[in-house]
Amino acid sequence: MSTDRRTRDLALIATFAGLVGAMGLVPGVSPFGFPVPVTVQTLGVMITGAILGGRRGGLSMLLFLALVAIGLPLLSGGRGGLSVFTGPSAGYVIGFPVAAFVIGTLVYRFGAPYRMWFGLPSIVFGGIVVLYCIGIPVTAWRAHLSLGEAITGSAFFLIGDTVKAVVATVVAEAVHRAVPDLLPRRQSSKPRAIKASAKPSA
Question: Which cellular compartments is it found in (predicted)?
Answer without folding.
Answer: Cell membrane
